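Thread: pyridoxal-5'-phosphate complex, take 2
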Amino acid sequence: MEMKTEGVRFIKRPVVDMPNWKKLFVESNIPEKLAPLKELSKNLWWSWNTEARDLFAKIDEEIWDECAHNPIVLLEQVSYQRFQELESDEVFMSEMHAVDKQLQDYLTARKNTLGPKIAYFSMEYGLHDSLKIFSGGLGILAGDYLKEASDSKANLVAVGLLYRYGYFKQTISLQGDQMANYEAQQFSKIPVQPAMDADGNWIQVEVEYPGRPLYARLWEAKVGAVSLYLLDADFEANNENDRFVTHHLYGGDNENRLKQEMLLGLGGIRALKKLGHVNADIFHCNEGHAAMIGLERIANLVAEEQLTYAEAKEVVRASTLFTTHTPVPAGHDSFHQDLFKMYMNKYPAKVSLSWDEFVMLGKAAPYEDHFNMSFLAANLSQGINGVSMLHGDVSKHILKPLYEGYLSEELNIGYVTNGVHYSTWTAKEWKEIHLKYFGKDFINNQLDVDLWDKIYKVPDQEIWNLKQNLRAKLIDYVKQRFTDTWVKRNENPKLIGEVKNALNPNALTIGFARRFATYKRAHLLFRNLDRLSKIVNDPERPVQFIFAGKAHPADKAGQDLIRYIVEISKRPEFVGKILFVQNYDMNLAKQLLQGVDIWLNTPTRPLEASGTSGEKGVMNGTLHFSVLDGWWVEGYREGAGWALPLERSYDVQDFQDELDAETIYNLFENEIVPTFYDRNEHDIPEEWVGFIKNTQAQVAPEFTTCRMIRDYQDRFYKPQAERSQRLHADNFKLAKEITSWKGNLAAIWDDIELKELEIADGITNAIRIGEEYPAKVVLDLKGLAPADVGVEIVITENEGNDEPTLVECKEFDLEGTDGKLATYKLNLHLMHPGAYSYAIRMFPKNEQLPHRQDCKYLRWL
Ligand SMILES: *Cc1c(COP(=O)(O)O)cnc(C)c1O
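Output below.
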């Protein structure tokens, strides 16, 4: 080519246009014959089915581990050549078809579901590590519950948020500092698919923010036969700020949390509406985060059924259940009323309320300046429950401000103790033993305690071998996991070697892993380091502790604690004896709970609402050693674990910590270590194996999600659904009647006059056991029906300055009426000696109310 010789004087600046990116989805190139793998990879059912997991592992063990057991990524990364090999591998093909058939049969058997239709709402779901939409216990519980709902054929649909980054991945620096890394999820690599409407359009919902709408797209995750719908705001339709709404779980500021909760509650109901699920019988609000579901449903009923706000509220309450999960204040979200008003000021007009009337839904008293989501949830729910027997009682104290005049123990707040999903958390090796001794159909008969009792028939040798084997697997796993991460952070190779040498697959191994919230008291074990050193360094009877857990990025105290444990673990006397493994996730939890001998839990009583990790342990023959708090109050049996007493001995926390630490050391020195190392002639610790058997026979069966969902059905879903149906019938006839009755009562209540109150002399002085003392009350009811008002005497005992406790509550009989006057009488006789207090009160009576606090009027006379 000929070139001009003069130089180029000027080159024009180019105008390059921006590429017009088009979406391109490249599906992995899986041969037709292997197509079932694709469907298997997209239903999280594989995560709790042992055969399905084994099948994926067989495709390529190395990639399977590298991609942290994410089958979608696995199928993308496996070479075409490997697929071709598999296609002609008859064994593999027949296994694949068997697993595929299992899934198809499983789904077919669940075409017909049992019980009321439930819409379940939660801020987080822990289903598998590859779907990063959970942080800890609350999420894992919700995830386990969906799996169980599927297994138990419950008619349940779930709603949550799809986070771009989810919760953080934890790494620990050389100095022991926790570093939080957020990794973006690519939604094509996780088991979610766009949820489409009947016309094949991707479903979107809108929520109003000040001056703009927020758009959210809907995704579906398949959890066996249950659908989990997830809202995602991270796409072009929203501005940068709003896209952030679904970036982080428990991240951002309080305003962002409010935006998230609006999306979950208001948006969640809108999504169900578009999906045709808004007719559910029960709306289950898992923690207060989703409480706005009630607001949206009320607005819908007002707009579509021409109900008044009060009538709609009656209907919504009947069909809503609120589960509260923690007594710790940080677990109860509240928003300053100015912030709340900025976002919600348009709402009251929709239901013809004033702002002041509306905002009381989230307050216990008008002067409060925060809107509390737990209060909102409680006010819009007929059923309320805590997550263990003890936590049910504790929750009564927390929610008491909403029910003036009642003693906390009178409140209609129940409980369902949390459980864990057997198939997810039980080691394959244990599942095999259970299958062999409990029978083929055990999985479907988990509630049958007699089956679990057969564990006593299993030879000690078989159980001990299994336990040794699982411990060895854990030690291997831990060595691998910490070597990788320690090399990455440039830890001294000498130290790595020392730790690896010291870790002992035959030593008594204790696990402690959970969120590093201060109330969990991970520091307790370290109060006396000399004593701890003696315990772990006994050459004849070595002991090792493995710690793991994340602290919330804003929780400095929690992070300090991690640093302290990391520092201790590097002291010469503790190298390989105390180990902190980073990034506690479901897989690590599984390995730990299946492999350790003891699971240690030392919360400050009564702040552990339930706790579930110990429950995962007991089904794996891991003995539980815990403060009697949460589920362990119900679970502990002598000879099946160890317990620190329920009662606090000291008000000063530091003294209590000292006492608890002392008790822990004593138990290790005098009971636990000797029992573990007391071997018979076959080198089996007979008594220890006896403990394992007791644990499986007497504790484990009570703490499955199978038992848990049955309790929810019996105590809440079924009775509430039955009443809710009655409220709906005949164009909401009963709901309107009850509302009108309540309205009438409210209008007159304050005018009711006490005309006479007579009590026999004895009562005011000293009364004798067994004798009768007449009492009489005359009220001017100002036109209310006498049967609508009850009168009762409340007798309490008051020790010290605690809240009085209820001894007895006796209702007066309606004796007669005279115009507007009604006379109530009672013959009181007490049967137990003691010093009591008494008072008389009147209350609204109506058989159609589900419980007393459903109509909060109450007056002491
Ligand atoms: C089970 C589990 C939890 C909850 O444990 P608690 O004992 O309730 O604190 C937290 N994180 C992970 C990864 C779990 O598997």
